[in-house]
Amino acid sequence: MEALRNFFYDKKVEKVLDIGTGTGKFIEVLKKSFSEAEFFGVDPDENSLKEAKECFPDIVFQKMGAEELYFENDYFDVVSLSMALHHLPKVKRGLKEIKRVVKPQGWIIINELFSDNLNPAQEVQKMYHHFRSRIDRLTGVSHRETFRKEEILQIIRQAGISIQFFFEHKREVNLIEEKGALDKMTEKMKQKLETISERPEFEEMQSQIEEFREKALEFGFQPATNVVIVGRKK
Ligand SMILES: C[S@@+](CC[C@H](N)C(=O)[O-])C[C@H]1O[C@@H](n2cnc3c(N)ncnc32)[C@H](O)[C@@H]1O
């Protein structure tokens, strides 16, 4: 993300915490801006952390949710949360913790996909995402539908984070171009649906898989646009 590299190139950043790090995908992005920094990654999901540790053996990964961080106050120069805001069961509490552990002169980076102004191929990705997130909610896992861009900015401002700047990031790719990719996706949807086979929503959601396939063949499948926000605690 060139805008991040340009903004941070002359700023001293020694410690970076990536929250909701998953398999560490966003750390890979951040390393391009903070090549000298020491990284820490946290996530409640142990399986993802195991993969992250294999990819980045030098980084400390710990099992932790955003709502309760086991770090001192004012500890990090940069704290990031990527594609995870809509996963937090307690958004306000999570953002409060982020503010607590970042230094007063430090930076908060929020990278989040949004649901408005999407092209038809991105609408197909939204269908897929919302299908999966609905099943998560039905099975007791915190996973909201995607926020609108303005909602995200409002949540950040209301949390007492002053936004220094933000930009949109869009990947111009069709993820079902590769042979077999759409079959894999529909298979994943079917497997996920099986987890609610006893529920009344099952049948209705079964028909959504075919609808998804048709739309994907017509329009393609492109990741949603993200808003990347750089802020500071007030
Ligand atoms: C879509 S993944 C994003 C992974 C990575 N940050 C990225 O940008 O690709 C969302 C991550 O949020 C994590 N998550 C869920 N609940 C969380 C919580 N309460 N606190 C922190 N992370 C959470 C999930 O385990 C998952 O790894």
TrEMBL record:
Q: Which CDD domains match?
A: AdoMet_MTases (cd02440)
Return the PANTHER family for the record: 2-METHOXY-6-POLYPRENYL-1,4-BENZOQUINOL METHYLASE, MITOCHONDRIAL, METHYLTRANSFERASE
Q: Where is coiled-coil annotated?
A: none
Q: Which Pfam families match?
A: Methyltransf_11 (PF08241)
The processes (GO biological process) annotated in the record are:
methylation
- Please state every residue range assigned to the domain named Methyltransferase type: 17-110
> What residue stretch is flagged as signal peptide?
none
Q: Which GO terms describe its molecular function?
A: S-adenosylmethionine-dependent methyltransferase activity
* UniProt keyword terms in alphabetical order: Methyltransferase, Transferase
Q: Is the keyword Methyltransferase in the record?
A: yes
Tell me if Methyltransferase is a UniProt keyword of this record: yes
Q: Which Gene3D superfamilies match?
A: Vaccinia Virus protein VP39 (3.40.50.150)
Name of the protein described by the UniProt record: Methyltransferase domain-containing protein
